[in-house]
Records
---
Amino acid sequence: MAASKGALDGVFVLDLTRILAGPTCTQMLGDLGATVIKVENPRTGGDDTRGWGPHYAKDGGGADTDLSAYFMAANRNKRSVAIDIADPEGQRILRHMAARADVVIENFKPGGLAKYGLDHATLCAAHPGLVYCSISGFGQTGPNSSQPGYDLMAQGYGGIMSITGAPDGPPMKVGVGIADVMCGMYATIGILAALRHRDATGAGQHIDLSLVDAAMAWLVNEGTNYLTSGTLPERRGNAHPNIVPYDAFACADGHILLAVGNDPQFARFCDALELSEVASDPRFTTNLDRIAHRAALIPAIRPAMAALPKADVLNRLHSAGVPCGPINTIAEALTSDQVQARGGVAEVAGADLQDGKVRLLGNPLKFSATPVRYTRAPPRFGQDTDEVLDRWGPDAPDL
């Protein structure tokens, strides 16, 4: 039986991005079956993140390669070509490949590609069916459009840092580059929508996406809380602005997470931990009551959990149908039975790598007809240049 094709089989993506936001998008497109050509600068040794160690995949002899763990997190299912975008011959090659592409995606500063004839205005005019996605720190317009974009700055400017961290501590960024990653996810959605429109009408378009715009868009309930009330959200640590109790709680031998989402769950929570006085207190009857009296409720329930082992508390609450869970380390999360059952870690073959493979985070999408496939390990710098030029370069035969 023939292997099923990916959902984006036949889609050709010319990837002029680096670091994380753009590569997150193009890795997703590659996971879904698109052919992704990653263009890397031979004058700098390629994508900056190739050098962002300290952890690297090993080659067959046990030596470090140019595949840092950071780079591998967002660059599987791609071919790497070494092309100098500042060289006229490199520009000629890329313009030819753009003519064959369904999608061009880049994350240069606004206007930075115009001098090479690779900007959206030039390429979209020459190829009306092209979907061209630009990712930048602040977008192609606005007073800050010329400023560079980094995940940390986007988290700060977009507001998420102001509500992240302990109530009495400083603002904190999220532990991973979430502004970059979510911008990459929005880029993926935008590209898929634009391809749908192109397939229906024949017309491509330009997608203008910024890290800061994306970061503000996923402020979700806290952003809308402010817009609705005019009241600034506060840092609450692990607590929730709209649900109580919803937090991390200390047990006798560690911490657990508790997420009581409605009033019946709260009644069952109190029953499971024998908190009859708390259950009968009119200050805590409804979620709105509990929000209003948060400062009284939390100290009233903490001692019951602090006196018991984690396993006991979790067993009681699970049996009662109260949402709760552990706080896993990354090691515990990635070796859990749930991850093993769901394919959360993927082993991807790489012929020149130690043990002939690398282990990467799996794609969470589960398709019934067009499953995600891991056909290409993250590429060594420029490893596919000859193949790509032979198949898609200016001197390649017409497809």
---
Amino acid sequence: MNKARTASGSSTLRKLISKPEFSILLILVVMFTITAVLQANFFEKRSIVRNINAFAPLILLTMGQAVVIIAGGLDLSAGSALSLVVCVLTFVMRKASPETGAWAILAALVVAVLIGVINGIGIGYLRIPPVIITFATSYMWLGAALFLRPTPGGESVDWFKAFYDFSALPGASDSLKAFGSWMPPALILLLLGCLMWFVMKRTRMGRYIYAVGSNGNSAYESGINTAKIQMQACVINSLFIFLAALFFVGQTMSGDARMGDPLTLKAIAAAVVGGIALTGGRGSVYFAIVGALIMSFVNKIIFFANIPYAYQTLVSGVIIIVAIAGSQTYTLYRRRAMARESTLA
């Protein structure tokens, strides 16, 4: 009986190790450990909060990008869309009128949904390849952002700081400051994003997103409105972009039409590092978060290793390639090993 239990436990461990998620988590642990060694105050509360604030925008954009990729698409306009939503927020708000903050949030939400609908119509209904349509719309969103905010600036009402730091609010109570010291607004936005996907994944729409990404033709033949599902995936992505825009404006209290430019490809890379298949239909939005964390730790390692700025992009790209290649090679190796063991058994 003990031998049977040992064999069963060994088999379970081998199955766990063979999963792609195991290699992704292993890479995260390595990156986490290296960062903790290089950053002396890594485990201090203030440092943890700063890291959460630094990681949050990329995590939110990666989660949205993951949904689109799982549905069989790709969004090259995410960074420009983020810039546009930020510019809408700072264009509508007036510092002297606190009530304009609510109107700005409503206007930004409407714009975000429209961005998702337009991308979704292009991908789902017009059948334009996702790379082409989102590349084109990225210039539309950038042009609109530059129209609203030709130069960085704008206004924000004071209470909008709550999306970045509760203690920065005028007249913030001691209890609110204490709450914000261990539960920063960025973490709340991330939890809200996770909750949003947790609910959506358990609906019919969530199941259909995976089905459409796996095989669009088969999904269509089975009665799924594939065009509608792809549009809904794009709208979900826009909601994650909206959450990231709230954080950015709370942090900077201003807008910039080019602020989102570097985040588009980073979000795609983070999703791939997190195990999202670019062919669609496979992967977990939650493991896309792990991919975003790995990407964020890469930037931290480069910074604390004092690598010259001119080489940071090169080193970052090399690390990403190594992480992806290592994950895929390890997964392939373990699957072949499992197949050999099954054959021998």
